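Design job #97: recover the sequence.
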């Protein structure tokens, strides 16, 4: 039984003593060690006094300090956690801290940050002294650099309470260490001055010594206090009062805090204001909190990293969890997150971010989407697919265009971590709908760009079905940047296409874009065409290269660099998303022209020769949705009709379902209709329709194009001028006539007068039979005597469909904003 009472208490002490922290201080009875809690490994600091050759006086002073510290609870005073006492040794456990002089010599702060950090530390020490002298009626009697300790968050804590006593006692304690005599005030040796002393006079003198040591190092002689060369000028007037010879002239600590906190004084700076607000955040109202958090991100640059991570970040997390600060805390939260290690980020910030994705606040969701690049590197795939993506996908359907656009952009970063179902099914389903049906051109453009960026992460089977269809669909978009994005995406992903798709789908579609109204689109098309043609030409010269060029078509992911000719497109498609605004040099407003009738009669139809890119709402808030709707109306008025006319390619059944690239049919990415096999007559009709669409904007060549007529021996046609865009087709007609091919023309067509020269470059003066026959013979198509009648039927069907579309567009426009002529702009 006696063994129980004689057991060593140190064996049951819940803390483990570690290595010494810093150099041994000969001005303190304590030796500072690192330590940790045995139960959970939590870091602490352990002050040790005594040992094998312990001094009994030091042991008594240490026990007195432990007793005093147990009764003092203040944010600026060292926090007591536990203690262990015996006759030979005393151990005092506190929060983890480091000595002030060690912290000042080891910090890596800039001069401005160092000054701000010191001002915050001196403010805390002054508040601690104010608490002791005024509220506690105590005098510390040991204020110096050896009694100050700094936490990981840069907070200065007052310790060294071995000589702390009541203020009613006007006697000075006897210091056990002679090195501490340098801090004794003048009245310590002059009894006459003790009659005018105050309860704070001795501690204010010590505060002056602390200020000097902070900027100069350890104090060796009291006479050195007169040297103020290294003390900031804004602090010198107050410092001289702190070390005044008369104790009655030394200010109260409360007065020091008040005077130095005035504008222009040493305690008045962004760091002190920020940390003071965080300490008092519980008594602030919602408006003050929101204003503070909105400005905090800009102030973080002047706050030392240790304070931002250990002081500001916990306050931000608490504010988000226990108050309605909303999205205002996200900007500083993410900025501080960049300073954290991976383990700290996962522990402190990631749980908060996962909860925020389920927020219904649009501002919060927008902030999260804008930080997708940083978040994606920290979120593990399991958390992303199960907890984040279901909420993320709702942004594709949001009514706010800014949310939809940023949701699309975020897939660029989250895509590599998404599972098969989320990436190859859910994401592509939303992309197909946005690219084909979204009313915002910028969103359609960025959908194409993002699809090109994540192409390497798609499953090979899915990739083969959707890429060509998606990018060719983009090349027919009315928004010029969207068409450019489609062309660049084709080049950037050229390694994923087999040569059969290149020859049958990609090259024919790109050729049609060589006459695009926008020069920026044409420039991109010519570069991409040269690249694809060179690729096909190499295989033609050496068929053994085909297997090498198609090596990545069925690979799960691509890590190799594209060929040199596509490198420029990769840089363009992966550099930036479209941010709105015109991307070409074509003026926003262009002259209108009259569309030719496809049945031989002229039907006036207003149609612009180039698209005017409408600034997209990328990066804008919901407050501009009204302006966006106005811009959408301009698109609808000027452009959509001509696009639909160009997109629909006649099929044997009179439908154009395949011309959409398979993106609008139940969102099925089955492939583009250009790759299907066509009969001879279908090829002829498709070629005529494509040529009509491609040349519909060449109004500048109207005076140089002449109509094709049957050979007339009495009138000789002059040769076309050099560079005439129709010279190629004129040569085809001449070759046809030379071979004796006779073209039968209907009587109605023969008596039709020539169309005005302003009609789209004179394309309407070309008889469809002549073009069909010329193409048939020049391009190797078979023709028959019934081609004329079939051409008339095709023209009549196209004219009927065009009139029907025009009536639908006019009805829709009348329902929305009353009657309006095509091409008219709203005022």
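Job complete. Output follows.
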């Amino acid at each position: 039984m006696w063994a129980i009472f004689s057991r060593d208490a140190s064996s049951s002490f819940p803390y483990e003593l570690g290595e010494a922290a810093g150099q041994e201080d000969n001005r303190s009875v304590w030796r500072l060690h690192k330590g940790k809690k045995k139960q959970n490994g939590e870091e602490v600091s352990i002050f040790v006094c005594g040992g094998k050759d312990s001094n009994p006086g030091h042991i008594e002073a240490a026990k007195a300090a432990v007793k005093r510290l147990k009764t003092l609870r203040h944010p600026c005073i060292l926090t007591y956690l536990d203690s262990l006492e015996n006759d030979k040794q005393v151990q005092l456990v506190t929060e983890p801290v480091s000595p002030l002089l060690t912290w000042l010599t080891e910090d890596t702060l800039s001069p401005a940050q160092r000054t701000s950090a010191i001002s915050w530390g001196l403010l805390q020490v002054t508040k601690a002294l104010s608490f002791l002298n005024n509220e506690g009626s105590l005098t510390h009697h040991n204020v110096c650099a050896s009694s100050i300790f700094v936490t990981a968050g840069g907070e200065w804590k007052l310790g060294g309470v071995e000589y702390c006593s009541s203020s009613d006692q006007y006697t000075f304690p006897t210091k056990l260490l002679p090195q501490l005599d340098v801090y004794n005030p003048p009245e310590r040796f002059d009894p006459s001055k003790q009659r005018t002393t105050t309860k704070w006079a001795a501690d204010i003198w010590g505060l002056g010594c602390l200020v000097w040591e902070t900027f100069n190092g350890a104090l060796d002689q009291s006479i050195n206090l007169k040297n103020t060369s290294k003390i900031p000028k804004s602090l010198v007037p107050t410092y001289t009062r702190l070390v005044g010879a008369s104790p009655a002239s030394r200010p109260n600590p409360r007065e020091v805090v008040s005077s130095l906190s005035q504008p222009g004084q040493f305690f008045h700076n962004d760091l002190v204001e920020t940390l003071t607000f965080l300490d008092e955040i519980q008594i602030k109202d919602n408006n003050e909190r929101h204003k503070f958090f909105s400005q905090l991100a800009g102030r973080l640059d002047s706050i030392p990293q240790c304070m931002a991570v250990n002081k500001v970040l916990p306050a931000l997390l608490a504010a988000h969890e226990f108050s309605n600060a909303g999205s205002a805390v996200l900007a500083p939260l993410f900025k501080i997150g960049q300073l954290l290690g991976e383990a700290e980020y996962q522990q402190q910030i990631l749980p908060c971010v996962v909860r925020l994705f389920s927020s219904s606040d649009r501002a919060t969701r927008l902030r999260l989407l804008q930080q997708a690049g940083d978040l994606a590197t920290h979120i593990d795939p399991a958390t992303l697919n199960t907890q984040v993506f279901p909420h993320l996908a709702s942004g594709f359907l949001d009514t706010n265009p800014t949310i939809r656009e940023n949701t699309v952009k975020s897939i660029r970063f989250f895509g590599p971590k998404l599972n098969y179902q989320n990436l190859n099914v859910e994401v592509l389903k939303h992309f197909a709908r946005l690219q084909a049906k979204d009313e915002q051109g910028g969103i359609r453009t960025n959908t194409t760009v993002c699809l090109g960026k994540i192409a390497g992460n798609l499953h090979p089977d899915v990739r083969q079905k959707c890429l060509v269809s998606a990018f060719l669909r983009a090349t027919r978009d009315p928004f010029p940047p969207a068409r450019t994005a489609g062309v660049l995406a084709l080049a950037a992903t050229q390694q994923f296409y087999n040569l059969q798709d290149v020859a049958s789908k990609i090259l024919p579609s790109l050729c049609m874009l060589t006459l695009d109204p926008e020069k920026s689109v044409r420039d991109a098309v010519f570069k991409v065409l040269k690249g694809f043609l060179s690729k096909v030409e190499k295989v033609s010269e050496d068929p053994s290269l085909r297997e090498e060029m198609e090596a990545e078509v069925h690979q799960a992911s691509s890590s190799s660099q594209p060929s040199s000719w596509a490198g420029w497109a990769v840089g363009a498609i992966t550099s930036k998303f479209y941010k709105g605004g015109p991307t070409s040099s074509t003026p926003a407003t262009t002259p209108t022209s009259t569309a030719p009738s496809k049945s031989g009669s002229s039907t006036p139809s207003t149609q612009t020769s180039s698209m005017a890119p409408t600034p997209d709402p990328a990066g804008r808030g919901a407050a501009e949705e009204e302006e966006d709707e106005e811009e959408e109306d301009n698109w609808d008025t000027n452009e959509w009709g001509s696009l639909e006319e160009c997109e629909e390619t006649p099929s044997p059944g009179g439908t154009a379902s395949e011309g959409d690239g398979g993106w609008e049919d139940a969102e099925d990415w089955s492939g583009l209709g250009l790759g299907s096999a066509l009969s001879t007559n279908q090829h002829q009709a498709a070629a005529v329709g494509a040529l009509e669409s491609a040349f519909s904007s060449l109004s500048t060549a109207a005076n140089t194009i002449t109509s094709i007529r049957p050979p007339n021996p009495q009138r000789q046609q002059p040769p076309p001028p050099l560079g005439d865009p129709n010279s190629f087709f004129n040569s085809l007609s001449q070759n046809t006539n030379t071979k004796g091919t006779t073209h039968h023309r209907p009587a109605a067509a023969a008596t039709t007068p020539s169309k005005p020269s302003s009609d789209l470059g004179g394309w309407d003066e070309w008889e469809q039979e002549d073009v069909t026959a010329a193409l048939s013979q020049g391009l190797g198509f078979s023709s028959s005597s019934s081609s004329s009648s079939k051409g008339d039927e095709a023209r009549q069907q196209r004219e009927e469909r065009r009139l029907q579309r025009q009536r639908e567009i006019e009805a829709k426009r009348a329902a929305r904003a009353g009657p309006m002529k095509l091409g008219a702009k709203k005022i």
